[in-house]
């Protein structure tokens, strides 16, 4: 009844609770628990930077040490979101700098980060340690230099697949001679050559460096010299291997690798010549992660490498591995948990690779721990999907990209409904699902019904009618992110299930048949959703029934965003176009 | 197994819009007896060459960088059509049994179905490329935007290592020899008007204007790129489309370069070999701003001839 835990005791208890989901629950118990929780939360994750205002977050969690933010919708990766849409990091950096000077870690994904942002970070957070930018853009190497120069205790600097204005390799020299704290450095997405002597010195004076990912401009010689200075590396991304094979170069490389006895993860390998692969053999038995997805090497050489990787858990590779290569993987890499197979020639015309659904079936049969799959393939069959589902009910992530849109089961000419039904039904722990190929509404009935734990669902070129969306929005209990492109439906199901949208993080629909009228109606009906119409032509000049190009709907407590560009319409922009009595706060 | 009528069309449609064919639509509506809740005629998008129909769709305002959709493929088709006129698109002959299965009553008693308002659509026309070898360069393949779903980073990495094909050592050594010591890498900066970043490319990895343009297209895939034209007899490798019409459209971008004399020229006028020897920098700019370059180009051509 009147029992109340002293806040010190509660604080102590909460210090054992790390998961944000649990902490969110804790914060709902009562006001004092809310207060204690918010003052002690160290790690904040915001899955949609527009769902909540930076000021609100900074105010609520003054002791935050680590902030993770995501900006643009996932389909931005495939150029479906026009430039200038949004996702700016600046307001967040500004708010954090003002209220949370103890911030040490910032991780951003798909956001626009400017040099000013980076300079502000460097200037505002005295003990800044970790900066990870994934698929970000808007900054130059000058911004990176600012971070390098100013952040004395910098431990992690990772630029993953960012678009950076590359003004040269000088940024590296901005790490002061006194900086010895680096644990992880990833500049693989930069183009310019860095001064190898600077890099050598940096690596030599950072004894805790365990992850180093170089850009393609680093030569083999450079790699050898770096490996010699950092044999303790556990993760390595090589530079470019494109150099003529000289016998002494090979033996030097081989020796350097053999001294890296703790290497677990290997990536890069751009333009690697098959003749160099044997230099890697010594590290293979210890590898748990191998990214060969930029290595244009043929199957026999790949197999020769992979058969030595008995501990491999994560493999990214191109379809050059062929079915046969995957058969070998299935027999040698028994610890495999994650497989990604990328197309070497995304254009259909050039698709002549003997990689079929059979490759994935081999791996599904042979690798019992397989739980995550991303597979690009020209066509597929229901039978294969059934086998995969039967053999691997432990799948958590299944993303199949049948490259040819609307491709049916090429053996029976049926849609792939049955196959995906088996996946949804059989893989009860499935969290993420991407479907492709010819699919009717039926497939989505199954998915809606059985995919109870799926949080993220991606759909392209599928379905026949509104029923498809209806099935998904009335089922899929755990659905948080739904992204759809080029599917023939729109309004009815969307409006009918508007309430569901508040339980989700976001919904993306492009090239579907959602009308402008429906968007307006939805905006009016659901004030806690931001309904964005992203359209080349201002929708208000078109009839209400005309379909809009793209819609992005997300729940938010931050209200309408103020930084929408011209091509993003929200109801807040032209309230007079909406219902006349709508009150805009 | 009945097949829907396969019609051959030049696939133009702005890729963001699913394209619909009036004929296929009516077939479906006859067999399905559905009530068209939405008026499709009003929303019907027709296929056609840019400039011939629905000219308002190519909105020059929208082609400005900060507001561009990715990409405005109408312009892109023009480019690729110029290279390979025989681009043919076939509607995918999707199985009609699929749609047959989804009968009007199969929903779980949802109001969607009961009202009879379930709007069924024929499959949007999808460009299934004919598998023939007439396609010359990657740029000639008009593709659906963002499909297959591969990150631009990966696409760009593949594009820049296009010259490195998987092969045996001797092949690569040959390639190495060609780009050996006497022809070191030739990195030039490529900037685009209004773009927040610039790229660097190695001109040595391309053998023709076609390859260069396809690579640029991939790199700046969110933006439109105008064609390379050629004046009469000046360029062997240029295309035969008149550049003036492109310039007049005003919404195209053109690629220009700064040559050894620090003059800005339109790419495509001089023979490829001459181009790579004299090119210092590339810049993609709006064609409306590049008009002034044309006369200079003519002069240079004349003086070189």
UniProtKB/TrEMBL annotation, chain A:
Does this UniProt record's set of keywords contain Translocase?
no
Where, per UniProt, does this protein localize? Nucleus
Gene Ontology terms: cellular component: nucleus; SCF ubiquitin ligase complex
Alphabetical keyword list: Auxin signaling pathway, Developmental protein, Nucleus, Ubl conjugation pathway
Pathway where this protein functions: Protein modification; protein ubiquitination
Domain F-box: start-end pairs:
1-48
In the record, biological process GO terms are: auxin-activated signaling pathway; pollen maturation; SCF-dependent proteasomal ubiquitin-dependent protein catabolic process
Cited InterPro entries: COI1_F-box, F-box_dom, Leu-rich_rpt_Cys-con_subtyp, LRR_dom_sf, Transp_inhibit
**GO-annotated molecular function:** auxin binding
Question: What SMART domains has UniProt attached to this entry?
Answer: FBOX (SM00256), LRR_CC (SM00367)
Q: Does the keyword Coiled coil apply?
A: no
Protein name as it appears in the record: F-box domain-containing protein
| Organism lineage | Eukaryota, Viridiplantae, Streptophyta, Embryophyta, Tracheophyta
UniProtKB/TrEMBL annotation, chain B:
Give the GO biological process terms.
auxin-activated signaling pathway; regulation of DNA-templated transcription
Q: What is this protein called?
A: Auxin-responsive protein
A cellular component term (GO) from this record?
A: nucleus
Q: Quick one: where's region Disordered?
A: 95-142, 155-180
Which residues belong to any copy of the PB1 domain? 185-287
Q: Which keywords describe this protein according to UniProt?
A: Auxin signaling pathway, Nucleus, Repressor, Transcription, Transcription regulation
Q: Which domain of life is it from?
A: Eukaryota
Q: Where is the composition biased (Polar residues)?
A: 155-170
The cross-references to SUPFAM superfamilies, in alphabetical order and at most eight, read:
CAD & PB1 domains
Please give the family membership noted in the entry. Answer: Belongs to the Aux/IAA family.
First-listed, main subcellular location of the protein, grouped into a coarse class: nucleus
Q: Does the keyword Ribonucleoprotein apply?
A: no
Q: Which PROSITE patterns match?
A: PB1
The record describes its quaternary structure and partners as:
Homodimers and heterodimers.
What does the UniProt entry say about where the protein is found? Nucleus
| Function statement | Aux/IAA proteins are short-lived transcriptional factors that function as repressors of early auxin response genes at low auxin concentrations.
């Amino acid at each position: 009844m009147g029992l109340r835990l002293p806040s010190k005791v509660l604080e102590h208890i909460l210090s054992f609770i790390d998961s944000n989901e649990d902490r969110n629950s804790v914060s709902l118990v009562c006001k004092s628990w809310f207060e204690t929780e918010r003052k002690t939360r160290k790690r904040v994750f915001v899955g949609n930077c527009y769902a909540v205002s930076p000021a609100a977050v900074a105010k609520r969690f003054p002791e935050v040490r680590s902030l993770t933010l995501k900006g643009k919708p996932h389909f931005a990766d495939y150029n479906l979101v026009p430039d200038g849409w949004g996702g700016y990091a600046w307001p967040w950096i500004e708010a954090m700098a003002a209220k949370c000077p103890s911030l040490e870690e910032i991780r951003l994904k798909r956001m626009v980060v400017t040099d000013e942002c980076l300079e502000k970070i460097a200037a505002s957070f005295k003990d800044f340690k970790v900066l990870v930018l994934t698929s970000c853009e808007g900054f130059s190497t000058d911004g990176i230099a600012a971070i390098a120069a100013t952040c004395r205790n910098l431990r992690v600097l990772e630029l993953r697949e960012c678009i950076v204005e590359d003004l040269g390799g000088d940024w590296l020299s901005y790490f002061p001679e006194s900086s010895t704290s680096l644990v992880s450095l990833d500049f693989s997405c930069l183009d310019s050559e860095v001064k190898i002597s600077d890099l050598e010195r940096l690596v030599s004076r950072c004894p805790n460096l365990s992850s180093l990912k170089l850009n393609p401009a680093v030569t083999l010689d450079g790699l050898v010299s770096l490996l010699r200075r950092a044999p303790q590396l556990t993760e390595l991304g090589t530079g470019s291997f494109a150099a003529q094979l000289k016998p002494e170069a090979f033996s030097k490389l081989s020796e350097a690798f053999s001294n890296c006895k703790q290497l677990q993860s290997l990536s890069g390998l751009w333009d690697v010549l098959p003749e160099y692969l044997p230099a890697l053999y010594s590290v293979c038995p210890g590898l748990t992660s191998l990214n060969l997805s930029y290595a244009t090497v043929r199957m026999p050489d790949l197999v020769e490498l992979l058969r030595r990787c008995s501990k491999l858990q994560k493999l990214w590779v191109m379809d050059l591995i062929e079915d046969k290569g995957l058969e070998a993987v299935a027999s040698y890499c028994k610890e495999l948990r994650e497989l990604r197979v990328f197309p070497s020639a995304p254009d259909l015309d050039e698709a002549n690779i003997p990689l079929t659904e059979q490759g994935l079936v081999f791996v599904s049969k042979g690798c019992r721990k397989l739980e995550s799959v991303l597979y690009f393939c020209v066509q597929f069959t229901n039978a294969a999907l059934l086998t995969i589902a039967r053999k691997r009910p432990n799948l958590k992530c299944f993303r199949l990209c049948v490259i040819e849109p609307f491709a049916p089961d090429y053996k029976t000419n049926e849609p792939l409904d049955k196959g995906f039904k088996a996946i949804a039904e059989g893989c009860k722990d499935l969290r993420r699902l991407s479907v492709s190929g010819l699919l009717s509404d039926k497939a989505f009935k199954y998915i809606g019904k059985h995919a109870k734990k799926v949080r993220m669902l991606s759909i392209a070129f599928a379905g026949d009618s509104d029923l498809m969306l209806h099935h998904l929005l009335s089922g899929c209990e755990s659905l948080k992110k739904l992204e759809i492109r080029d599917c023939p439906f729109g309004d009815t199901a969307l409006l009918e299930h508007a309430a569901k949208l508040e339980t989700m993080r976001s919904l993306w629909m492009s090239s579907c048949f959602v009308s402008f009228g429906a968007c307006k109606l939805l905006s009016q009906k659901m004030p806690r959703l931001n309904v964005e119409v992203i359209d080349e032509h201002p929708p208000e000049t078109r009839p209400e029934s005309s379909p809009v190009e793209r819609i992005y709907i997300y729940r938010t407590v931050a209200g309408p965003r103020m930084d929408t560009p011209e091509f993003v319409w929200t109801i807040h922009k032209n309230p007079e176009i909406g219902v006349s009595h709508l009150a805009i706060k | 197994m009945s097949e829907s009528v396969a019609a051959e069309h030049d696939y133009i449609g702005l890729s963001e819009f699913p394209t619909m064919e009036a004929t296929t639509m009516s077939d479906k509506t006859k067999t399905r007896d559905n009530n068209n809740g939405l008026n499709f005629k009003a929303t019907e998008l027709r296929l056609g060459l840019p400039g011939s129909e629905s000219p308002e769709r190519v909105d020059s305002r929208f082609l400005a960088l900060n507001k561009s959709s990715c990409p405005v493929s109408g312009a892109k088709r023009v480019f690729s059509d110029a290279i390979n006129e025989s681009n043919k698109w076939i509607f995918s002959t999707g199985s009609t049994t699929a749609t047959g299965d989804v009968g009007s009553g199969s929903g779980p008693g949802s109001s969607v179905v009961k009202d009879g308002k379930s709007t069924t659509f024929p499959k949007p026309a999808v460009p299934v490329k004919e598998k023939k070898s007439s396609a010359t360069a990657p740029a000639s393949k008009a593709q659906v935007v963002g499909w297959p779903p591969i990150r631009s980073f990966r696409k760009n990495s593949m594009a820049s290592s296009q010259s490195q094909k998987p092969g045996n050592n001797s092949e690569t050594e040959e390639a190495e020899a060609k780009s050996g010591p006497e022809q070191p890498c030739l990195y030039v900066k490529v900037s685009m008007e209004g773009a927040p970043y610039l790229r660097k490319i190695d001109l040595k990895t391309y053998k023709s204007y076609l390859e260069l343009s396809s690579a640029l297209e991939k790199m700046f895939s969110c933006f439109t790129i105008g064609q390379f034209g050629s004046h009469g007899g000046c360029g062997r490798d240029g295309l035969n489309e008149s550049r003036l019409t492109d310039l007049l459209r005003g919404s195209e971008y053109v690629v220009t370069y700064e040559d050894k004399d620090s003059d800005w020229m339109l790419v495509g006028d001089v023979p490829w070999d001459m181009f790579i020897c004299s090119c210092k920098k590339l810049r993609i700019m709006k064609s409306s701003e590049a008009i002034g370059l044309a006369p200079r180009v003519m002069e240079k051509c004349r003086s070189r001839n």
